[in-house]
Each structure stands twice: as structure tokens, then as C-alpha cells.
Write a structure and sequence with these properties.
alpha/beta; about 725 residues; 20 helices; single chain; eleven-stranded mixed sheet; Glycosyltransferase STELLO2; five-stranded mixed sheet; STL-like
């Protein structure tokens, strides 16, 4: 439904524009015409009539049973509900393979007549009309808000959880339960406390969750624009017991849910967004009195919040789920529930040319006023559905939507009861109780990352654009390379810092140390035999282009590595102080033992390894040693590396001996990439020296980082090669 139609149908006055707060920035008016969207119709002034309050006899609602589809006896607890306007997308095909979840596709007037997808249930317009639901009479023919029929169908067929998605997102790792809490009770539930935004400032009624997940200059669709500039992170958080997160909002990587102001002002014309959030940031809950934008792209509703799935019909389609989210959050407090926002659970693809802004996405509801209104709203009704209907009515009185949505709410609530849904019991509102002071021990700290905002500054030509262009280039080059770091120093002081520095560039940063640290996601490994720990990570990231190993006493200048060939092995074989050949005769016992073990392994090597190795090592009385501070193994050499680790088996071959042996067995040194040949290398350095560091060298060794201060000094000096690093400090 276009905005003009919705207002004309509402019999409301011309001031409805302002009371509804639908604003079109001049820049977007231009975008809208470019997108081919309908123009805004002028609305003639008519007298204002208050909406009529629906009269419902709650006790005489007849059961609606599925008699018209082949699925009348089908039951499933977990449903994925998606609107489809085109043939099945690759993302949707993948969703049908997610174990234990039933995909339900809802058609509209744009859906191809022969739409079909194995594993999915499809409800065409004709099928929807035969289901007997009251809501069908209110739904526009060409809109995703027809999903409302789907929610009822799923509930009618046994739904306990509904995952509300669109068809342009891939579920990360095809595992909905990876971050989301699919089970809230019983065996599968994570019994845990959840970080929660602090309620200390009663005037803060809405937050931008993207800051918590590392992107402070991105904001979600539905965040009041006056809040966009608030980019400071939380001074502290509190905690809440898990189990009542009945609405779960996932963050989307790639193209997150952003509004038109962001979309059209923050990107170069034809470049697709690929924004990444911190997938290690903890999920975060919202206390009563504080709200967050909730969408229909990547959200789980548990049965206690199913009533909150209704998508309003009298507002523009791209405002519908935003209004629903705020309306439902307010009502959720009445049943003791809350919203939790989760780390990235989906990757949505920006199709650039097909972004649905022509579907009124450029209309901004005055959500700031709506949120404040909702937080202040109180009801003395004694049952949840009566409260819901009352709130829908008052929102129409206030002009947030029209009388059509009051009637629609009444139809929706009756349909819910008709398919067997039982309304949850009310709980007393915490908002009205005196709030305890937040004591020192209740304050929980979490400092969000400041991830690179690759979209920033596209309007500002010159340096910033150039720097961001570089960051995008590095990210494109290394975004599928896994960095594995070994920390000899204190991980408490440095693990997060290393992730912050290198996580902007690489697919992921694995940190290993002598001792495991679960809180910091640091894995255990012994440096002397670190090669034996690597196959586990090779296996875990089986789709990575390659793996770069780095010790924490070596600095990697990633911007110098763009020319290196990612299909070749990289190592320091031409850095004389790092890679040496030692004569075994007359040397210490250790060298003799290591050389003996190498001979044993070489003797058991398959032909291709043994031939390579013997071509490079002519002198059987010498031992090749490499300090192996930094090396790279491309994907296609990973099986060879793993085979060689297995050949070593239980032998105590030292890392400095095993790695050069592996490299010489895998390939001839003349095929190694020469990228590390020019690294700056000394055996020992009394202290970090700015004169020793060079932004042109591929890597610097040694360099000591044992505290946050050391890290900040390093960042400042590395900014010579990557000026955007200054954002981190």
C-alpha cells in the first residue's frame, strides 16, 4: 500500500503527515524518483473522526481448523516464515535444509504462478483466501505483510517458535541455534545470565544495538534519527536471568537492516554493502523502559510472544515491521518478557540495484515520539488481549496508524484464539516499581570493538575515501584468510587488542597460548609443538582461502601483502637470521636428536614429499632451522600439511625444525612466494624502536607488546601504513 493510499483511506486530516511523522528528506525524494517509487499524493483536508472501538465477545470464538490444504494433519514446532515475490532464492533453498525447521513461504500478487520449492510449504493468494482467517480481508495483495496469514497457519500447525526472515539472507553456518536461544526451557536451554543495558538513565528510551556489536556509525532502520549521533558505548551493563527472551533480534552481516538515509548517504553508488559486526560480542537484553528496533528479517518469536507478530496494514510496508516491533516490545513487558539482541545470525546480500526502497522504505515514522508514548502508556485491563486491543486503539487516536489497524488487531486476536493459541498471563510491570540503585558489584563491563566502518565518508572526497578504499581492498584480499596467532605474553592484556587490530582485515583471528582462557576465547597450544595444534583449526575453517600463522613478537604490516600470491606457500626462507642450516656434526645433543627424528620422518614420507625434500636438502649432515615467526599455508596445501603432522606422530620434533621440513616437503623453495624476503629482522632488540619499525616492510621482528600502552604505541606507529587505525585509539 502506498503512503498516499493509506492516508486517504484513513479519513484523517492533512496534519496526519505530521502526527504520523512521515518525513521524506529532500535527498531521498530524488532517490525515490530514481528508484521508481510512487510519488507522495497530496492529501486534502477532511474532518477528523475518532476511531471506533471494536466490540468482541471473547467467549464465542469458533475454532478454525485447516480443511483446505494437504497439510491439515501436519505438525511442527519450529517454523521459518518468509514472504516470496520471486522464484526461490539460493538463501531460501538453503533454509529448507536446516534440520528441524519447516519453511513456510507466503505468496502475494507478484509471486510467479508456478512457484514451488521442495521442502517448503507454499501458500498462494488463493490458498490464503480459503484458510478462513479474518485477517485476510485487511491485507494488501502485493506486500510482505501477508506473512500475518503465515504466522497463523504455523500456530495452527503446532508452532512453538517462529523465525521471521526474508529470502535474501543466509543463516550463518546454517545453524539457527548457534547464537539464538531456540530453547528457553528444558534440556536444550542455556541456563545463564545475560548482559543487559543499564536502566540507570530513565530518559534513555531507545538504543542503537549496532554500537554494542562493533559498528558505532551504522544505525538500524527504525532508530529515531535524532539518536544517530549517540555513538558512545555503555559505561556499564547489568545482568538479567535468561529464559524470558521471547523476542530475539539477530544482527545481520553484509547488508544489515539500515534505513534509506543511511543507505543513500553512506555508500558509493554501485558498491554493495558488506558490513561486519563483532560475532564475539555477547548477546544483550533490554530492560523495561528501553527499546530497540526489531525487524521481520532475522527475528525469532517464542510462543509467549506470538501475539506480537501482527504486521500493521495502514502504514507503509517498510514502516510496518518497525511499528510492530515497538508495539510488541511494550506489550512484552506486560507478560514479564524482554527482547535480546544477538551477534550476527545471518548474512544478507545487498543486491544494490534491487534494494526495495521503491516500497516506501524512505518514509520515516516519527519513532522517537512513538517510543516515548509507548514507555509512558499504562493500561488497567486484566487480560493481555484486552490490553493489546486498547493499545492499538490509542495508537490510532494518536495517529501512529489508522482505524484500519484497530479493526485488523481485533481480527488478528480473534484468529489467534481460533487456531488454539492461549494468551499468556499478565505480570506486574517492573517499570512502576521503585528501581534499586545499581551497586558497584552489579555493574558489568564490556567495551565494544570499533570495527571499521567501510561505508563512512563516501561523501567526503579525498583522503578518507582513499583510506577506506584501501581498507576495503585489504579486506577483500584477506577477508577469507584465517590468522592464527600464538601469544607468549599475557593474553589478559593483549588478546582483545590483537583481535581488534587484525580482526578488521582477516576472516577471523584465532589466539593460542600456553594456557587456555575461555573468557577471552584463547585456545591452548604449546609453542614448541604448535604445528600439531593447527590441523584442528584448518578443519574448523574448511572454506578459508588459507591460514597465516604469526607469533606475538612479530608485527604484520598487512597492507604490504596485497601482491603476495595466496595460492603459494610464504615463509622466511630468505631471511638469514630466521632460516638457517646448522651442521649436526660436533653440535649439541639436541641438534643430533632432532636431526635423527627428521631422518625417520623423511624415510616414511610418500614419494612426492621425499623427492621435494631431498632436492632442497642435499647435505644429510645438516639440519634446517626456521624460527617460523610468520608463515602462510594456502588451502590446497592444507591436506599435505596435515599428512606431514600425522607422519611426525608422537615424535618430539620442535616447531623450528618441523615447519621448515614441512615446507621443503610440500614444495620447492623456488615456488615459495618471496613476500617475506624483505622483512625487518633482528635476533634481539633491547626495546621497541621507532627507527627499527618500517611501514614498508612486510613484517617486523622482534616487537614486544605486553600491555595496552604497548599496543596503543604500536597502533600509532602502524598508522603510517593504515591511517584508519587511529580510529581504534
Amino acid at each position: 500500500m502506498g503512503f498516499g493510499e493509506s492516508v486517504q483511506n484513513s479519513n484523517n486530516s492533512a496534519s496526519h503527515h505530521h502526527r504520523c511523522g512521515l518525513i521524506l528528506p529532500p535527498k531521498l525524494l530524488h532517490c525515490r524518483r530514481r528508484c521508481g517509487g510512487a510519488a507522495l499524493h497530496p492529501v486534502h483536508s477532511v474532518s477528523y473522526n475518532p476511531p471506533k472501538f471494536p466490540q468482541i465477545n471473547w467467549n464465542s470464538i469458533n475454532r478454525i481448523v485447516d480443511k483446505s490444504t494437504p497439510f491439515s494433519s501436519f505438525r511442527s514446532e519450529k517454523w521459518i516464515v518468509v514472504s516470496v515475490s520471486d522464484y526461490p532464492s539460493d538463501s531460501l533453498k538453503k533454509m529448507t535444509k536446516i534440520k528441524g525447521w519447516q519453511v513456510l513461504a507466503i505468496g502475494n500478487s507478484k509471486t510467479p504462478k508456478d512457484w514451488n520449492l521442495k521442502g517448503a510449504i507454499y501458500l498462494s493468494l488463493d490458498v490464503q483466501a480459503q484458510l478462513g482467517f479474518r485477517v485476510v480481508d485487511y491485507l494488501p495483495y502485493d506486500s510482505y505483510v501477508r506473512k500475518t496469514v503465515g504466522y497463523l497457519f504455523a500456530i495452527q500447525h503446532g508452532a512453538q517458535k517462529i523465525y521471521d526472515v526474508d529470502d535474501r539472507g543466509d543463516v550463518i553456518d546454517n545453524d539457527i541455534g548457534k547464537h539464538f536461544d531456540v530453547e528457553l526451557i528444558g534440556e536444550g536451554a542455556r541456563q545463564e545470565v545475560i548482559l543487559q543495558y543499564s536502566h540507570e538513565n530513565p530518559n534513555r528510551t531507545v538504543v542503537n544495538p549496532y554500537i554494542h556489536f562493533g559498528q558505532r556509525s551504522v544505525w538500524p532502520r527504525g532508530l529515531p534519527l535524532e539518536k544517530v549521533g549517540d555513538i558512545g558505548h555503555e559505561e556499564f551493563y547489568t545482568e538479567v536471568f535468561g529464559g524470558k527472551q521471547f523476542i530475539q533480534q539477530g544482527i545481520s552481516n553484509g547488508l544489515p537492516d539500515v534505513d534509506s538515509v543511511f543507505y543513500f548517504t553512506r555508500k558509493a553508488a554501485l558498491e554493495a554493502f558488506d558490513i561486519r559486526f563483532d560475532d564475539r560480542a555477547p548477546k544483550v537484553a533490554l530492560p523495561q523502559g528501553t527499546m530497540v528496533p526489531v525487524n521481520s528479517f532475522n527475528t525469532i518469536f517464542h510462543s509467549s510472544a506470538f501475539w506480537g507478530l501482527m504486521l500493521p496494514v495502514s502504514v507503509s510496508t517498510m514502516a510496518s515491521d518497525v511499528l510492530r516491533g515497538y508495539w510488541a516490545q511494550r506489550l512484552l513487558w506486560e507478560v514479564g518478557g524482554y527482547v535480546v539482541v544477538y551477534p550476527p545470525t545471518a548474512h544478507r546480500y545487498d543486491r544494490v540495484e534491487a534494494y526495495p526502497f521503491s516500497e516506501e522504505k524512505d518514509l520515516h515514522v516519527n519513532v522517537g515520539r512513538l517510543v516515548n508514548f509507548l514507555v509512558a502508556w499504562r493500561s488497567n485491563k486484566h487480560r493481555l488481549f484486552e490490553k493489546i486491543l486498547e493499545l492499538s486503539y490509542v495508537m490510532a487516536e494518536e495517529g501512529f496508524w489508522t482505524e484500519k489497524d484497530v479493526q485488523f488487531t481485533a481480527a488478528w486476536l480473534q484468529d489467534l484464539l481460533a487456531v488454539g493459541y492461549q494468551q499468556p498471563r499478565l505480570m506486574s510491570l517492573e517499570l512502576d516499581r521503585p528501581r534499586a540503585n545499581i551497586g558497584h558489584g552489579d555493574r558489568k563491563e564490556f567495551v565494544p570493538q570499533k570495527l571499521p566502518s567501510v561505508h563512512l565518508g563516501v561523501e567526503e572526497v579525498g583522503m578518507v575515501n582513499y583510506e577506506i578504499g584501501n581498507l576495503i581492498r585489504w579486506r577483500k584480499n584477506f577477508g577469507n584468510v584465517v590468522l592464527i596467532m600464538f601469544c607468549s605474553g599475557s593474553v589478559e592484556r593483549t588478546a582483545l587488542e590483537w583481535r581488534l587490530l587484525y580482526g578488521r582485515i582477516f576472516k577471523t583471528v584465532i589466539i593460542l597460548s600456553g594456557e587456555k582462557n575461555v573468557d577471552l576465547a584463547v585456545g591452548e597450544g604449546q609453542l614448541d609443538y604448535i604445528y600439531k595444534y593447527l590441523p584442528k583449526y584448518f578443519d574448523r575453517y574448511s572454506s578459508a582461502d588459507g591460514f597465516l600463522f604469526l607469533q606475538d613478537d612479530t608485527v604484520l604490516n598487512y597492507w604490504t601483502l596485497l601482491q603476495a600470491d595466496k595460492s603459494k606457500l610464504w615463509i622466511t626462507n630468505k631471511v638469514s637470521k630466521s632460516w638457517t642450516s646448522v651442521s649436526v656434526a660436533g653440535n649439541s645433543d639436541w641438534f643430533v636428536k632432532q636431526a635423527d627424528m627428521v631422518k625417520k620422518v623423511v624415510a616414511t614420507m610418500p614419494a612426492h614429499f621425499q623427492v621435494n625434500y631431498k632436492e632442497s636438502v642435499k647435505d644429510q649432515q645438516s639440519l634446517t632451522i626456521c624460527n617460523s615467526e610468520v608463515f602462510y599455508v594456502p588451502r590446497h596445501f592444507v591436506p599435505d600439511f596435515v599428512d606431514l603432522v600425522n607422519l611426525v606422530g608422537g615424535l618430539d620434533i620442535h616447531h623450528k625444525v618441523a615447519i621448515p621440513m614441512f615446507f621443503l616437503a610440500m614444495d620447492s623453495p623456488q615456488n615459495f612466494d618471496s613476500v617475506f624476503n624483505s622483512m625487518r629482522y633482528k635476533q634481539k632488540l633491547q626495546s621497541n624502536s621507532t627507527s627499527f619499525y618500517s611501514a614498508e616492510a612486510p613484517a617486523i621482528h622482534p616487537w614486544n607488546v605486553s600491555s595496552e600502552q604497548d599496543f596503543i604505541r604500536l597502533i600509532r606507529i602502524m598508522a603510517a601504513g593504515d591511517p584508519l587505525l587511529m580510529e581504534l585509539v
